[in-house]
């Protein structure tokens, strides 16, 4: 009993001195040992285990960046974050850690495990950059890797995000299609449908739903002007000849409902018809969405 109490006091009761170098982010057990701490020191409430032999101060928020910093401490040479993880490091609004995605050279001694997906692919020197202080596949390689494995709609959605954010331009995709790389056929279709004007993935999904159903491709974010040439609205999607606007209503719309209603009234007064759709409409009743738009175009 005395021995058990002694061990518990050593681990939990003693407030450890925290080396400054270990207080700023993720570190490995080897880092801790270089600063005079061992595994048993890291079992107290002052520390949080982030992964195999990786830790951080418990008071640090467990943000995506902290998780990626922890994973990066054990990367083999030549490895880089890729897929959605790389897209997030480049600044796109995607989930970076579900799971963390990593591309490594074929001989590298690291394997897929819970929360980490490892893909073994060759990476050119110009295909790896540093973003937020971490190695990531370049934007074009990231988009190419994602397009190969995503559905056409989701591939176009991620390409639209990159184009709209200025992380990629259309000529980059044109050059990628011209090169003899894996996934060229998919990239060619993505390039055909890509729209830099799209302001959200759900707008892209609505547009692709209509186009893949055989309806004409609507324009994105077209400014509508009144008789005095004042901009009175900008529908997410617009059929110019039919003066039909389509809107995706997400969380932002709910937060600005009053202003959206005033804008809608101005558009209606200018002779623009509007159809509004939610994520539930697009995902759960796509045929109904297609039918409403088809009928409105024919009216």
Summary of the model, kept short:
The chain is α+β, with helices and mostly antiparallel strands and 299 residues long.
Name the strands of the widest sheet in spatial order.
Answer: 9-12-13-14
Average the pLDDT over all residues and give the rounded result. 89
Q: Kindly report how far apart the N and C termini lie.
A: 85 Å
What structural category characterises the helix and strand content? alpha+beta
Reading the helices and strands in chain order gives: HEHEEHEHEEEEHHHHHEEEEEHHEHH
Instruction: Outline the biggest β-sheet.
Output: 4 strands, mixed
As a whole number of angstroms, the C-alpha radius of gyration is: 25 Å
Taken as a percent bin, the fraction of beta residues is 15-25%
Unreliably modeled segments: 1-13
Helix content: 40-55%
- Total domains: 3
Can you count the helices? 13
Quick one: overall form?
elongated
What is the β-strand count?
A: 14
